[in-house]
From TrEMBL:
Signal peptide: 1-21
Name assigned to this protein: Membrane protein
Protein's organism: Pararhizobium polonicum
InterPro entries: RcnB
UniProt superkingdom: Bacteria
Family annotation (Pfam families): RcnB
Keywords carried by this UniProt record: Signal
Length: 117
């Protein structure tokens, strides 16, 4: 009986880390389905309608950490009032990537907030 109890305790120590293991993908990109409709009118009055379903991947999310390479290619926004953004707290700054404004932590590069224009 004592051996059985020891074997059960030992196996619980071995299987517990596997139960709490994280998945291989630490950050998954959210996907959004969109519909695009294209209408073409030809010379003879014929109409052609093409409907496409497009999956758009969102690139930024709160809590995502920007790599040093990504941080080198973005520009800081000093005139945040011009874009109707609130003042960044101490240790954070607004940056602009394409038409997205990201509020990032200066020390860690973690996205705190985002705004799209």
């Amino acid at each position: 009986m004592k051996r059985l109890l020891i074997a059960l305790v030992a196996s619980s120590f071995l299987t517990a880390p596997m139960a709490f293991a994280q998945s291989a993908k630490p950050f998954e990109v959210a996907q959004v389905n969109e519909r695009h409709v294209d209408r073409n009118v030809y010379k003879h009055g014929n109409k052609k309608t093409v409907e496409k379903r497009v999956i758009v991947k969102k690139r930024w999310a709160r809590g995502h950490r920007l790599s040093p390479a990504e941080r080198r290619h973005i520009s800081a926004v000093n005139d945040y009032r011009r874009y109707k953004l609130r003042a960044p707290p101490r240790g954070q700054q607004w940056v602009r990537v394409d038409n997205d404004f990201l509020l990032i932590s200066v020390a860690t590069g973690v996205i705190v907030n985002l705004a799209t224009r």
